[in-house]
Amino acid sequence: MSETVNTQEMAQILSEPIFTTFGWVRVGPTDVNWECVELEKHARKKVKTHPSDAVFRYYDPYRGIDIYLNTDLKSYKSNTLEKTDLAATLRQLARATECANKSEKWSELFANEQRNWQVAGLLFVFNNDGKYDKDFATVLMEVQPSEVPVAEGQCVYVLGPRDICYLNTIAHDINARRGQKLLPDQEYCGFYYPDLEDAIAAKSRKHSAATIEQMLSPWQLLRYDKHNPTGIQSGYYFYYRGQGKSVDEFKYLLDYIFKYQLLGDLDQILIRMPFACAEAVAIFERSKIQYQEEFWSVGNASPEAFTERLKRIACNSITPMEERFSAVEIGMKKNK
Questions:
Q1: What angle in degrees, to the nearest 10, is found between the helix axes of 280-295 and 247-259?
Q2: How many CB atoms lie within 10 A of CB 85?
Q3: Three-state DSSP class for 123?
Q4: Is the CB of residue 7 less than 8 Å from the CB of residue 75?
Q5: 74-83, 197-206, 311-320 — which is least confidently predicted?
Q6: Is the pLDDT score of 66 beyond 80?
């Protein structure tokens, strides 16, 4: 039993530093149960409570409200993960999410009643031995929507093993770059949100956290303002989860950069790729040459000026960070 508890604690140990780096805040108690307010609907005959392993909060700049993630933290060895009933796990999380949006007790434990807010569900699935080699997204797609009845207007999100590896790598990279003074402190950074056709991002929140939708997207942009003796240097770290196997793949990223005018006169953009193929950096350089040949007249810039802008976009691969934990070691640390 103690080893099982220690195994589950691995997800707790890993999740908080990741989410903190992305600007989330853990609120309220951890590993707590609270009463179900839909006993009949949720068929709660014996167990009449829902769990909250941890609850995290961030501000959504598009919706203008606080989002609370009622989080189910799972840690599995690969052979256990393959046997896990994902539909049942997600069904319980969907029910807990519905109740959390209605429960006075949940609100007392976690929410700031002075602000507008909504609760979403988050399933965090960590593979603690690093041996799970299946496509978790494909496995997840086998779960039928009818098996997980999410209440209208509510959402349940899933971070699988590869997502967690990717986000953990970004978190380590951001913190390492800060330690090397290549990135400023968190108060001078924020994740970038463009204005969309049907949603305008709030401009009053300069140092924005990453939303769960952004964390699950193909890329995440961290905007920074670095204060130097000569002034403020601004730029972006453009984290990209693709492999960079083709010129067209990179030209799509360049299109995004120029569409949203991210490359100002003093800005620099560094594309960072945890899952890059071996040739990604070379392919990126070829893509810049082709992009210049095809689109150099953007904004009526001269070819020389456009070349200078492209020189301020660089690309690097970074080593993925796959964490390993020992249940015995965790138990020994707790007993010290």
A1: 60
A2: 10
A3: strand
A4: yes
A5: 197-206
A6: yes
Task: Report d(CA 112, CA 305) in Å as an integer.
Answer: 50
SS3 (DSSP) at 258:
helix
Check: CB of residue 274 under 8 Å from CB of residue 240.
no
pLDDT for 96: 95
CB 64 within 8 A of CB 208: no
pLDDT at 68: 98
- Helices and strands (H and E) in the chain: how many: 11, 12
The pLDDT score that the predictor gives to residue 2 is: 32
At 267, which amino acid appears? D
Mean pLDDT of 300-327: 81
What's the CA dihedral at 299, 240, 222, 320 to 10 degrees? Answer: -150
Contacts 24+ apart (CB under 8 A), 101-107: 101/151, 101/154, 102/37, 102/38, 103/34, 103/35, 103/37, 105/34, 105/35, 106/34, 106/52, 106/70
Q: Which uninterrupted H or E stretch holds 221?
A: strand 219-228
Tokens, residue 332: 């020994």
pTM more than 0.85:
yes
| CB contact set of 40 (below 8 Å; sequence gap of 6+) | none
Structure-derived torsion over alpha carbons of residues 28, 29, 35, 37, reported in degrees to the nearest 10:
20
Full set of structural domains in the chain with CATH: 2-161 (3.40.91), 166-317 (no CATH)
Q: Are 291 and 311 in contact (CB under 8 A)?
A: no
